[in-house]
Design a protein that fits this description.
2 domains; elongated; alpha+beta
Length: 640
């Protein structure tokens, strides 16, 4: 039997009556409680059981997703204000996916950025599971529109997925499932990451992975269930491994606790579960063995994130504060408690913290809910980082992460993001709590009014202040005509690159968008990506950097861009510049009008010894002859 529908208080009575008579309720089947349990034989019928109430719920998730991303759709010449560098990065990744489909390019490595060293796609968030199927959109409308659609669908489909799983697996009430799914999808941490990390808000596989993991205990279907779970795990691995890892940790703890609590009532369940898990593990590892080998040992692989990123921890004070992009948020407070607007992972507010703890206490007889509460506390503790901060002040107390942040694999995780993993736990407990309130309304008619008021009031007080606001956008610099018209082809080809001033990095990601618009036919020097450090003083140091290792010319231009005075241009500096241009196999150097462009133009002109040409909205220096001629030298105003 499928779960009944419930959409408002008027339907609660009928819903509870149905629950009372429906012994196959998936609420009891998948989330075992302390009460008598039933066999997990019934499978949710996601699509055949859709009703008009489901349609309204699905529409609501699409509508909220469009509301959040509206500034990007209403202004197609805008980009994300808080994190433009990651938007340009993902536009480049979408173009990479399209190139894999159209040109048969190798998916796990590319030299279209950071030439000649290239970029390890597996060691970066290449989102191949999204970029490949989105190829038609990228080719027809360009990577900028494809990014907007990626972000919007990431939110909408995540909400729909959570709603369908919650309403078919965890609770029978559509209303309870809708409340839980709303929070899972639009929690403050999700709204924060929507400002630049579509790969992180693409969590539509998380509820499916949870469902299929719990389904492994179904007798006689180890192979089938294991293969389904393996498919979901592989799919998620090519969207975001960090989310997959955090989900696996939570599921592992939950399943271990539940196995212990059910060892007497279900003695054969663990064996059945382990058989299915074994199938899933073998298949998943077999499929991911080569991509993971490329990620950890392939060209341009790195060993751990930069030290300052591994120190990113959630401030204890942030758990009861409100995020920048919550209606009750205060930007100044959030800035003091978080590293940047895209990492406001732990901002739940007092109301939700109290409601969540109250629900765990209220439902304490349910072992599953207690376990979820424990998982949330563990996630919170891990999110604090190696040193615990309280309201911006370092307490000097070491956190759990002080022991873990140097462990291989874990050293590639951002500790504050463990707080983001709390949101799904809270959403599930919210759904179960609302279901319990619905049960009380039916079972205790005399308490119907007080229970309704208490439920509506507590949920509203906790969630209304967390309502997300739209992403913030700002006008983006247009792609120069030099790029869109194809004028760059006169200078760059498969053997020559385009060198931009300054070279692309976290402060100047625009060139990534330019090469994406050419379908990555135009190769560029420099990059904004995770790349290994190449420290000549310590060859073993392969800690990640967010840009290529320092070179004299890129360092000079970055220094000028940051407002530092231009140093004296000497013959030694000219020799280093020519060496850099040959290393990059530069065909042309281009400079787009921007802050400090005059200073960069003068410096490069003095280095090369000749004036640039204005064409296609950029200044260009044709250096192809210099690079190709091994006898060419730079000697100031004249070139010999």
């Amino acid at each position: 039997m499928r779960p009944r529908d419930v959409t408002d208080a008027g339907d609660l009575e009928a819903e509870l009556e149905a629950l009372e008579s429906d012994v196959s309720s998936p609420t009891l089947a998948v989330i075992p409680a302390a009460e008598p349990e039933v066999e997990p034989a019934a499978r949710p019928r996601f699509w055949r059981s859709l009703t008009w109430r489901d349609a309204l719920a699905i529409f609501s998730f699409v509508a909220v997703a469009l509301f959040i991303t509206a500034p990007l759709w209403l202004n197609l010449d805008h980009e994300l204000r808080d994190d433009p560098q990651d938007q340009a990065f993902f536009e480049w990744m979408l173009a990479h996916g399209a190139r894999v489909v159209t040109d048969g390019a190798y998916p796990f490595f590319s030299d279209r950025m950071n030439y000649p060293d290239g970029v390890n796609m597996m060691a970066n968030t290449s989102v191949l599971a999204v970029s490949l199927p989105m190829t038609p959109i990228t080719l027809l409308f360009g990577p900028h529109v494809a990014f907007n659609l990626f972000l919007t669908l990431a939110l909408a489909v995540t909400g729909i997925s959570w709603y369908l799983v919650l309403s078919r697996v965890f609770v029978a009430s559509r209303l309870a499932a809708w409340v839980g799914a709303l929070f899972c999808t639009f929690a403050p941490s999700m709204a924060s990451h929507a400002g630049g990390h579509p790969n992180i808000v693409s969590q539509f596989l998380v509820p499916l992975i949870i469902w299929r993991c719990l389904a492994l205990r179904t007798p006689g279907k180890a192979a089938r269930n294991g293969l389904i779970l393996a498919g979901l795990l592989v799919w998620q691995a090519f969207i975001n491994l960090e989310i997959l890892f955090m989900t696996a940790v939570g599921l592992g703890i939950f399943c271990a606790v539940m196995a212990i609590s059910r060892r007497r009532t279900r003695p054969g369940e663990v064996t059945t579960f382990l058989r299915g898990l074994g199938v899933a593990a073998v298949v998943t590892l077999a499929v991911l063995a080569y991509p993971l080998a490329v990620q950890f040992f392939g060209p341009q692989s790195y060993h751990g994130l930069p030290q300052f990123v591994r120190n990113f921890g959630a401030d204890l004070g942030s758990f009861t504060a409100y995020a920048t992009r919550s209606v009750a948020g205060n930007e100044l407070t959030a800035e003091r408690l978080a590293q940047n607007p895209a990492e406001e992972n732990a901002f739940f507010g007092w109301g939700l913290v109290i409601l969540f703890l109250g629900l765990v206490v209220w439902l304490r007889r349910n072992v599953a809910v207690l376990t979820l509460g424990g998982v949330a506390l563990l996630y919170a503790a891990m999110s604090l980082g190696p040193r615990i901060f309280l309201n911006g002040i370092n307490t000097g107390v070491p956190g759990i992460w002080a022991v873990l942040h140097s462990v291989p694999v874990l050293n590639s995780a951002v500790p504050t993001r463990w707080a983001m993993a709390i949101a799904p736990v809270v959403g599930i407990v919210l759904a179960i709590g609302c279901q319990k309130a619905i049960d009380l309304v039916r079972s205790q008619p005399s308490a119907r009014g007080p229970v309704r008021v208490a439920m509506i009031t507590s949920v509203a007080m906790a969630l209304v202040p967390l309502v997300p606001t739209p992403v913030r956008s700002a006008p983006m610099a247009p792609v120069p005509d030099f790029v869109t018209s194809g004028a760059w082809r006169q200078y760059a080809d498969d053997n020559h690159t385009v060198v931009t001033l300054p070279l692309p990095d976290a402060n100047y990601p625009d060139p990534l968008r330019w090469t994406a618009y050419t379908g990555q036919e135009m190769r560029i020097a420099g990059a904004y990506a995770l790349l290994p450090n190449q420290n000549p003083l310590d060859p073993t140091d392969r800690t990640a950097l967010f840009s290529p290792p320092w070179r004299p010319t890129s360092g000079l231009m970055a220094s000028i861009e940051q407002g530092n005075p231009t140093p004296e241009i000497t013959d030694t500096r000219r020799e280093m510049t020519l060496a850099d241009l040959r290393y990059w196999k530069a065909g042309v150097i281009i400079l787009q009008p921007q802050t400090r462009d005059v200073e960069m133009l003068r410096a490069m002109t003095d280095l090369l010894g000749f004036e640039p040409t204005w064409t296609g909205g950029v200044w260009t220096w044709n250096v192809r002859t210099l690079v190709d001629d091994p006898d060419a030298v730079l000697t100031g105003p004249d070139i010999n």
